[in-house]
Amino acid sequence: MDSISRRRFLEQSLLAAMAGLAATETVAAPRSTRRRVAANDKIHIAVIGVHGRGLDHIKGYMGHDDVEIVALCDADMAVIPKAADLLDKKGKRAPKAVQDIRELLAMKEIDAVSIATPNHWHSLAAIWAMQHGKDVYVEKPVSHNVSEGRRTVEVARKLNKICQAGTQSRSHKACQEAMAYIHSGKLGKVTLSRGLCFKPRNSIGKIDAPQMAPSSVNYDLWLGPAPQKPVERRQFHYDWHWFWDYGCGDLGNQGIHQMDIARWALNKNALPNSVISVGGRFGYVDDGQTPNTELSFFDYGDSHLIFEVRGLKTDGVEGIKIGNIVYGTEGYAAFSDSYGKAAIFDNSHNKVMDFSGSGDHFGNFVDAVHSRKQASLNADIQEGHLSSALCHLGNISYRLGAPQPFNPKTKAFGDDKEAYETYGRFEQHLTDNGIKLDETKYMVGPHLKFDPHTEKFKGNAQANALLTREYRKGFEVPEKA
User: Fold this and answer.
1) For the structural domain made of 39-169, what CATH number should be given?
2) Taking 90 as the threshold, does the pLDDT of residue 10 lie above it?
3) In angstroms, what is the C-alpha Rg of the chain?
4) pTM, rounded to two decimals
5) What span, in angstroms and rounded, lies between the C-alpha atoms of 213 and 205?
6) Given the DSSP bridges, would you call strands 163-165 and 135-138 parallel, antiparallel or unpaired?
């Protein structure tokens, strides 16, 4: 780490070099080389959850002549017309509109489902779909907790189903080629992989009393596996991200993309040996539960992964707001938030190589459904599980933390200098946003030891309890495949 010092992350030369990595096109380009197939060879797909990201699913499949979207499903029937209109404008046959996922999955004409529901539904919807004979594309994070993510992998293997995780960077040419460069050893020994999610989030406000779900929503179906509670937020859609019963904070929202790239760069096919997180919800008081500023540190023994979430106003770290930096003994790699650009630098901050090119993640799923080859998936469910689980592990440490004053200085990170430098930027970021540290406390999570083989914490019953959840009757994720 000495040859590329900790200060390298703050060098002005990196700002200039990264300028060429500005976000370009974030939507995968439709493939033009795919063959046209007869109508009876078309894959019949249903999209589940069509309010936000589900619209991108629809757009992603519309460019493929071998796919027909035959059904749209959402617990909120009011959002389906807008989704159906996308198909109508392209002259596509009108899909069936279904509110109950159980009714949808019973439809024999459906070959595959594409899931873009809130997080708490991801694993259960995927498992139910595979048990009904469907292949699955499931959005990130693929799970709401570690245990159900592992169950999803096991069901896919047991039933030999195609199951793609929605981390689309895996299909982008730039990321693939940059990773091949890193994994070839040309970057030297990789010692640290850093993920950055600097995405300002405004306050979601406070409500005076519990709310009612919109009349167009079947709230029982929307809740699914989650506990029966009233709506405790002003905005029904999207703001569920900031509540533990349904979302995973920004670590598991935007951050899962950069977490996946960070783990991919380390070439790790298991979870880490330990985790510790610190953070808080700073700058405002609202109904949100998840932190808007969070640091998570993962120890893999021979390397480390550090993840930074910032939800207040920020200029980023030398121009990088959402992306990744991977440090090796021979240089470092930088990834932009478009997933279509990456670059390699030497230890003197000279650019060595550029990578560019997007991809078609939905198309990769379609190809695998045709070929029946799980190995052809760019983001097989196992990859999705591991990267999603890292987010859950970070959140578990945070949730088990205790409030502490910023002074005296924390000793939570032992002698890890990279961790302390990251923590210093965390403090500076808060100060820059007007947070008075001497009047503020933050959450310091416990340093949790983890067994990557059993995917259980060592000697911590509280932490292990958060690896799963209590499911509502009728919406249980099975304990075994």
Assistant:
1) 3.40.50.720
2) no
3) 22
4) 0.93
5) 17
6) parallel
What DSSP string describes 270-330?
A: S--SEEEEEEE--S---S--S-SEEEEEEE-SS-EEEEEEE-S---TBTTBSEEEEEEETT
Residues in the chain: 481
Beta strand 190-198 pairing with 304-310? parallel
Among candidate residues 366, 378, 340, 362, the one with its CA nearest the CA of residue 57: 362
Counting runs of H as helices and runs of E as strands, what totals does the chain give? 13, 18
Q: To which residue do tokens 């510790």 refer? A: 276
At residue 318, the pLDDT reads 60
Going 140 to 142 to 147 to 150, the CA torsion angle's sign is negative
The answer to whether 344 touches 328, Cβ cutoff 8 Å, is no
Is the distance from CB of 344 to CB of 350 less than 8 angstroms? no
Residue 167 to residue 173: CA distance in whole angstroms: 14
Assigned CATH topology for domain 6-25+172-358+381-465: Dihydrodipicolinate Reductase; domain 2 (3.30.360)
Return d(Cα 80, Cα 55) in angstroms, integer. Answer: 10
DSSP string, 364-416: HHHHHHHHT-GGG-TTBHHHHHHHHHHHHHHHHHHHT-EEEES-SPP-TTTT-
**And the tokens for 136?**
């699955």
Q: In the chain, list all ranges with CATH 3.40.50.720.
A: 39-169
Say which range, 29-33, 152-156, 183-187, 199-203, has the weakest mean pLDDT.
Answer: 29-33
- Residues 132, 135, 137: CA angle, nearest 5 degrees: 125
CATH 3.30.360.10 boundaries in the chain: 6-25+172-358+381-465
User: Residue 451 phi/psi, 5° resolution?
Assistant: -100, 105
Characterize the bridge pairing of strands 331-335 and 341-345. Answer: antiparallel
Percent of the chain scored above 70 by pLDDT?
91
